[in-house]
Design goal:
The chain is built from no helices and eleven strands. It is mostly beta strands. Strands 2, 4, 5, 6, 9, 10 and 11 form a seven-stranded mixed beta sheet that branches. A four-stranded antiparallel beta sheet has the order 1-3-8-7, with no helix packed on it.
């Protein structure tokens, strides 16, 4: 129901945009978020956006560097990541619903020189 894509290997300071295609639920009415999991660590909430895209939220370490957005006409969620750091390396998941109801399979982002 959620298909994330766009991950890859990028050098520190670089940029990457990950995308998520949604199906099987009413995307336009769903709160959406990105969470990540680094190797050996627990899941970490990264960013969230309300259904109408009027409000966005960010974890402190990514504020000013990441931008979440959505296109309800395309059932798509995005995360633009700039000024990437090695500590941003993780598997990034798009998650939908008020109670983390819908999960994608994740896309790997690796920040390394």
């Amino acid at each position: 129901q959620l298909q994330a894509s766009g991950g890859g290997l990028v050098q520190p300071g670089g940029s990457l945009r990950v995308s998520c295609a949604a199906s099987g639920f009413t995307f336009s009415r769903s709160y959406m978020r990105w969470v990540r999991q680094a190797p050996g660590k627990e899941f970490e909430w990264v960013s969230g956006i309300n259904a109408g895209a009027g409000s966005t939220y960010y974890e402190d370490s990514v504020k000013g560097r990441f931008t979440i957005s959505r296109d309800n006409a395309k059932n798509a969620l995005y995360l633009q990541m700039n000024s990437l750091k090695p500590e941003d390396t993780a598997l990034y998941y798009c998650v939908g619903g008020d109670y983390y109801d819908y999960w994608g399979q994740g896309t790997q982002v690796t920040v390394s020189s």
